[in-house]
Specification:
Blueprint (H helix, E strand, L loop, with lengths): L7 E5 L4 H13 L6 E4 L3 H8 L5 H16 L1 H4 L5 E6 L3 H5 L12 E8 L2 E7 H11 L6 E3 L12 H10 L14 E3 L6 E2 L7 H9 L4 H9 L16 E5 L6 H10 L15 E4 L7 H14 L6 H5 L29 H7 L11 E2 L9 E6 L10 E3 L2 E2 L3 H18 L5 E11 L12 E9 L11 E8 L5 E13 H5 L4 H22 L2 E4 H10 L2 E3 L6 E6 L3 E7 L19 H9 L1 H5 L7 E13 L9 E8 L4 E7 L6 H5 L4 E12 L35 H8 L9 H20 L10 H18 L9 H4 L2 H14 L3 H10 L2 H5 L5 H6 L3 H8 L3 H18 L4 E5 L7 H8 L12 E6 L5 H7 L7 E5 L16 E7 L8 H11 E10 L6 H7 L17
Parallel strand pairs: 1-2, 1-9, 2-7, 9-10, 27-28, 27-30, 28-29, 30-31
Antiparallel strand pairs: 3-5, 3-6, 4-5, 7-8, 11-12, 12-16, 13-14, 13-20, 15-18, 15-23, 16-17, 17-18, 19-21, 21-22, 22-24, 23-26, 24-25, 25-26
Helix pairs in contact: 1-2, 2-3, 3-7, 7-8, 14-18, 22-23, 22-25, 22-26, 26-29, 26-34, 30-31
């Protein structure tokens, strides 16, 4: 009865728990099982049942006692009159109106965060009425709920203690149902064990705000690993359990705010479906059957036998004796034209490059019509010239080959040996727009009576495209011939010619192995090609290794996996893929070009190309190629298959042979310096200049040298600015403790309680005069004097530390009451990014890390660098600026830089900052507390690992350092930046975040 698919979720909201549990059981009987559950308000009780955390009896007990306790609020506090109001604003926008409410009207709070733009306000009825009267004239949506109890507000505190006592004997299951994850709308995070749903949780659930929006977002964006591409979301179906689709609006608003990303960075439409179970004013049976059918239409396996026949003992028989219908086929009522028949009965499926045979197809002059769209052939995006997607010249050759083979099939030519093309000329480039309309192309074949040969009749082909105004543009033309086995065998002396060709080609490769005695890294080759404006994506980077000599090149070419990036992972079969053929033409760069001063060249003419019918098309298959220059701008290439089992098969007939490929220079980019070609040996093509450069050996630098090079640690304790900020931090702590009572800790989440208790200890240390920088006048200031001092420092200081301290410190009370979110305050106006980049100490430590890396990369220019918790790039950017480069310049040599963080949320801004070095970076998520190999990282891959102010935010330092050590190569360097004496100003800012408290500190070294 269990479904095999788990990417679905149950949503519950505050209706009768019994009804919700009945719906959960009904869906389970239909084979519908959740992969994740989340609840809204009291609906979380049914969510716990759906996840297998509690039994039916326990769920009903929690629900019953919650209702009883809620009713007793009026008994415990008869003066309280509660109400709730739905508001169409974000939490921050809603709270901005609270301060203007009359103090005599009472207090309100955000009780439910339903979506990024929808909340429910809860509190005193007078304040609720006043808030509604304020918002309605402004055109803001409001709706007063039909309740007299202010759920999820301070009103519920009156009954929370009794509720907790009643639930003391609450028991939970040993584990969640296998395959089901539980997401809490109290903590907005995933719970890992049912024991977390103990009595204290349900008490906190009663008095805390419902963080449904954050929890649903967190549930939806969990990453899943895939061998070919990453799936951006873990949930694809949301099933709402309740009497009406009340959460459909908030869910849509939440999903609209989620970041949608494709496999190559392109934006995609988010595909998460919301399905209600019951709908108001709709028959319940019809609604539930519709839900089951919708699940099935979206690929979920539903047990329709249980849906349609709930009583399994009812016999069911198949009708087998229905009478046949007496059709009369004697008279024809249909006449169809040739064009209609050609259109309906396509002789071949549509080829992504060639298209379909035109409806007015004639074997005397066959034509093919196509519409090229990048969404249908996404690998074309990887062929980019000067920031424009251009259809590759090899693509025209592929089109001609496929057209000739289709025509041969129509004429029953089965003994095909290969396809030969000659006299190819390339004209205007075909720019492919990234639009839904694409661009229309036409391929035309016409027999050429003047080009007959012993091998057969040549056909002339031409490739056109059509502009929006109907104008046709010719892009390529040439001759093509399907070569047959019989024609080849008829040539006299074939065996002798084949043997001679075998010896000639074998000697050609053996001699090339002697001449091509210098190696060139494939990355270096493609960097040179990229520098002149020809930008190849990964699909077109198929040359794996290169050796060169005097105007000759030996290379290994690998057939790429192109089907993986195609829609549906399907690709039409082809004799040779465009990307493989393009790699053969790419050999013109090392053969005809000076890579120390590369020039941009594109195909112009090809005298002849031959492609063997039996060429291996398997993805990952490797070929060996030899290219030789036969003129200043001409080369010839042969491609052999090393996997063939004999010299006769390997050398006797190359799988591809190109004769006199000619290219033309279209841009003058040769003056660009390309210093990254460190492996290119001078003197092969151009005269170059060089000079010796000396620097300190990084492995021999002593401590004294380091102080001189990168500066001694300054005595920040003597700084008046530091003392002033510490004093301001203490005043904010004192203000917070005066405005919060110890009883309010019950409403705080765990990390907030830790922050509150830490502030209490700081207050005690201050009274004992044990704080750094402290003087006696700190404690003598009145509340007004403290406010004046804080305002004075904030107004006259330009330090980003002061701005962050002021923003968080002045909101500490609201943060600990969950009225504002600290991270939102930090991100406002990019203040968090500025803090990481320009705070006291950050600039100094970034300079020290950059200085050390300068020396290291000078000695070892091929280091592979990994940064853990790179976040906003506050450390990365100074490093890149110190190493140099960006845009047209070249950085100090290093192999690659892997930029990681536990979440991809910061990647977009980091990519913008690091855009000048974009080709040197890879952005990947990494949770260093989890085995890196399980996240796609290999052990011993990195020469340098950088971790700046991140290791402290892990639960187990020993485990974290073990994982880091596994990633380091033997002899690798680990650059660790951490604060050893944490000041007050830092603690009250970042102590508002849960990650600050993950590490364990003793009271002796961390007050």
């Amino acid at each position: 009865m269990h479904s095999t698919r788990v990417n679905d979720s149950f949503l519950s909201h505050p209706v009768s728990t019994a009804v919700q549990i009945a719906l959960v059981d009904l869906l389970s009987a239909w084979g519908v099982q959740p992969g994740a559950v989340i609840g809204h308000s009291s609906g979380e009780i049914a969510a716990a049942y759906a996840a297998g955390a509690v039994t039916l009896e326990t769920a009903m007990t929690i629900s019953y006692l919650r209702g009883v306790s809620s009713l007793k609020v009026k008994e415990r506090a008869p003066e309280l009159r509660g109400a709730m109001l739905a508001v169409g604003l974000s939490p921050a926008e809603t709270e901005s109106y609270f301060s203007a409410l009359k103090p005599t009207g009472g207090k309100v709070v955000v009780g439910c965060i339903n979506s990024p733009s929808s909340v429910t306000v809860s509190g005193d009825v007078a304040a609720i009425n006043e808030l509604q009267a304020t918002l309605e004239p402004k055109g803001i949506f409001t709706r007063k709920l039909k309740v007299e109890t202010a759920y999820h507000s301070h009103h519920m505190t009156a009954a929370s203690e009794e509720y907790g006592l009643a639930l003391e004997t609450l028991e939970t299951q040993d584990c969640f149902t296998p395959g089901v994850t539980y997401w809490s709308s109290v903590t907005a995070a995933q719970l890992t064990h049912p024991s977390e749903l103990a009595a204290s949780y349900w008490v906190e659930h009663m008095v805390s705000p419902v963080r449904f929006s954050e929890a649903l977002q967190a549930m939806c964006v969990v990453q899943e690993e895939d061998s070919i591409m990453q799936k951006p979301y873990s949930v694809d179906i949301l099933v709402e359990i309740g009497p009406h689709k009340a959460l459909s609006g908030p869910i849509r608003q939440i999903l609209d705010k989620l970041p949608a990303a494709g496999t190559s960075g392109e934006a995609q439409t988010l595909q998460i479906t919301h399905i209600p179970t019951l709908t108001r004013n709709t028959n319940a049976v019809s609604a539930l059957l519709n839900a089951a059918a919708t699940l099935f239409l979206h690929g979920y396996i539903v047990n329709f036998d249980a849906v349609n026949f709930p009583k399994s003992n009812v016999p069911r028989n198949m009708l087998t004796d229905l009478p046949s219908y007496p059709w009369n086929h004697t008279t024809s009522h249909w006449h169809e034209s040739r064009l209609s028949k050609n259109y309906r009965f396509w002789k071949f499926p549509r080829h992504e490059l060639l298209g379909n045979i035109a409806p007015d197809f004639s074997e005397l002059e066959p034509r093919w019509r196509n519409v090229l769209r990048l969404s249908e052939v996404p690998w074309i995006k990887h062929h980019n010239i000067q920031d424009v997607v251009v259809f590759p010249g090899a693509g025209y050759i592929s089109m001609a080959i496929e057209a000739a083979l289709q025509l041969a099939h129509l004429t029953d030519q089965t003994n095909i040996k290969g396809v030969r093309l000659r006299d190819l000329s390339f004209h205007k480039a075909l720019v492919v727009p990234d639009t839904a309309e694409g661009i229309e192309t036409s391929f035309v074949l016409q027999p050429n009576e003047n080009a007959n040969a012993a091998l057969g009749i040549w056909s002339e082909f031409r490739v056109f495209s059509y502009q929006d105004n109907g104008t046709a543009i010719e892009h390529c033309r040439g001759l093509v011939l399907v070569e047959l086995e019989a024609a080849t065998r008829g040539v006299g002396g074939h065996a002798e010619e084949a043997k001679a060709a075998e010896m000639r080609n074998k000697q050609r490769f053996e001699l090339a192995e002697e001449i091509c005695d210098h190696s060139l890294d494939a990355r270096t080759l493609y960097d040179a090609i990229d520098s002149v404006g020809l930008h190849f994506g990964e699909i077109f980077k198929t040359i794996q290794s290169v050796k060169y000599g005097s105007a000759e090149t030996l290379a290994t070419i690998c057939t790429p996996e192109t089907a993986a990036c195609m829609p549906g992972n399907f690709e039409y079969p082809h004799l040779i893929h465009t990307t493989t053929l393009d790699a053969v033409l790419q050999l013109s760069f090392p053969t005809l070009n000076s890579l120390s001063k590369p020039k941009l060249g594109l195909p112009r003419r090809i005298k002849e190309i031959y492609v063997n019918r039996n060429i291996n098309k398997t993805a990952g298959h490797q070929f060996r190629a030899h290219a030789v220059a036969v003129g200043k701008q001409d080369m010839s290439v042969i491609l052999i298959d090393p996997a063939l089992d004999s010299d006769a098969k390997m050398y006797g007939e190359p799988v591809i042979e190109v004769t006199r490929f000619n290219w033309t220079i279209i841009g003058n980019e040769s003056e660009k310096q390309h210093s990254k070609l460190k492996d290119w040996k001078p003197g092969q093509y151009d005269k170059v200049c060089s000079k010796l450069s000396w620097d300190l050996d990084v492995d021999l630098i002593r401590r004294e040298d380091g102080i001189e090079l990168w500066g001694q640690e300054p005595d920040i304790r003597a700084s008046s600015a530091i003392a002033e900020m510490e004093r301001v931090a203490l005043y904010y702590i004192q203000n917070t403790l005066e405005n919060l009572s110890p009883d309010e800790q019950a409403n705080m989440v765990p990390h907030q309680r830790k922050l509150y208790q830490w502030m209490q200890r700081i207050a005690v240390l201050a009274s004992e005069m044990k704080l750094d920088h402290q003087s006696e006048d700190w404690l003598s200031a009145t509340a007004e004097e403290r406010r004046t001092f804080c305002a004075s420092i904030a107004s006259r200081s330009q330090l980003v530390d002061v701005q962050m301290l002021t923003r968080i410190g002045s909101n500490l009370v609201k943060i600990l009451r969950n009225e504002v979110q600290p991270l939102e305050l930090m991100l406002e106006d990019d203040l968090l990014y500025q803090t990481y980049r320009g705070s006291l100490g950050s600039v100094r430590t970034a300079s020290q890390v950059s200085g050390y890396l300068q020396k290291l990369t000078f000695k070892r220019p091929d280091v592979n660098i990994l940064e853990i918790g790179a976040g906003t790039g506050g450390t990365t950017l100074p490093i890149m600026q110190a190493l140099g480069g960006g845009n047209t310049q070249n950085p100090r040599c290093f192999s690659h830089y892997t930029f990681t963080d536990i979440s991809s949320g910061f990647f977009e801004k980091a990519k913008d900052k690091l855009e000048p070095w974009g080709g040197l970076f890879t952005f990947k998520t990494l949770d260093i507390e989890v085995d890196p190999k399980k996240q796609g990282f290999e052990y011993q891959q990195y020469d340098v690992i950088i971790a700046s102010n991140v290791v402290h935010a892990t639960r187990n330092l020993r485990q974290t350092l073990t994982h880091i050590r596994k990633l380091l190569k033997p002899g690798g360097k680990f650059l660790l930046v951490e604060a050893t004496n944490v000041p007050l100003r830092t603690s009250i800012v970042f102590g508002t975040l849960p990650g600050w408290w993950l590490g364990k500190f003793s009271s002796d070294n961390y007050p």
